[in-house]
């Protein structure tokens, strides 16, 4: 049996065994469903509809698809091929937070890239080849608990710093899920929000990510030699910026130094940081005494550096969301309880109050554990490594690899499934 046929059979068995545990989604009849089969000739089958939870489960058991999706949108006739003919009735508000789309420092340890144009390869996150400048980049993106922690932090920020205080969304209107790979989804189900246009969704996306914020409009200015910060202190962005600034100022100098020098964040040189730290106490006092709108005078800090500093703060406060997902009202998202074909992990729904403790790669609560192929009896599988370099995989507290091409390895069942789904090994 080929490895693909083997994985398909495993996925089918999963759906058969777990049929009663697969969650349902609201307004089921009005959702469009889609899936990506294991057969690589077919990209995606979409425009499907199901009349009941039972009928989709049967379908999953028969097909064992590689990836399963449903629409955030509601349609009168979701099965109609032509988008205009479906009878669009509105769409839930969807946020995708995925470390594929933003920088994390640990990618230097576990994400490989390879230029298809000139053959250069390296570690980390690149958008174009540093050697030839072309963007024909093949990447091998790996799972990592640090990255997933960052992604979880972004979801928590989104909920408690934006959706609840600024938009009045309640926790009961939110559905959260671990994507089964490198991120989380959040869906808001509310009548009011379903009618938002794409443009209105973009405005919300820009607001929560801090994209296109004008610091000048918020109040940053220079008047008679003095720099002024933000005046509206009671709500929205000015309050968040000042609060975050204060939080950072309260950190030990060494941590502030590290943060302010980070290339992807503030990128200040040592001299500027020294000046900043010299005026730290003055800045703290000003904020503590509600005089934050007059900025302290810091050596070397003119408008350019103040703008740079607060842009960095905006970046810290804003949420790393994948905006195209939020504004696309016809987008399909992963079905809860389904398997992610790149990992063999379950798309796991989580309640907001479970988020803090949730640890997808080493979850103690069996009901929330996305690693579904771990067998009770320890069984191992022999595999041959196909990829030039396979990063280390840390699952359930144990590390496997790194591996190099041609190596013969023997790993537990759930690690084998993960590596097979990643297509970096073959069974022997
Ligand atoms: Zn190149
Ligand atoms: Zn990482």
Description:
The chain has 428 residues and is of the alpha+beta class. It folds into four domains: 209 residues, DNA primase, PRIM domain (Alpha-Beta Complex); 34 residues, no CATH class; 103 residues, Helicase, Ruva Protein, domain 3 (Orthogonal Bundle), CATH 1.10.8; 51 residues, Ribosomal Protein L9, domain 1, CATH 3.40.5. It has 14 helices and 24 strands. Strands 2-1-3-14 form a four-stranded antiparallel beta sheet, with no helix packed on it. The protein has a four-stranded antiparallel beta sheet with strand order 6-11-10-17. A hairpin with an 8-residue loop joins β1 and β2. The radius of gyration is 24 Å and the shape is globular. The N and C termini lie close together (11 Å). The mean pLDDT is 94. The site of one zinc ion (ZN) has 8 residues, from loops. One zinc ion binds next to α3 and α4.
**Percent strand:** 15-25%
* Widest beta sheet: strand line-up: 2-1-3-14
| Uncertain segments | none
Summing up helix and strand content along with how strands pair, one would put the structural category as: alpha+beta
Question: Which CATH top level class of the largest domain fits?
Answer: Alpha Beta
Count of distinct strands: 24
For this structure, what is the CATH homologous superfamily of the largest domain? DNA primase, PRIM domain
SS field, number of helical segments: 14
Helix content: 25-40%
What CATH architecture label of the largest domain applies?
Answer: Alpha-Beta Complex
Total number of distinct structural domains: 4
Shape, principal axes of CA atoms: globular
Distance between the termini: 11 Å
CATH topology of the largest domain: DNA primase, PRIM domain
Average pLDDT confidence is 94
* Attached small molecules: zinc ion
Main sheet makeup: 4 strands, antiparallel
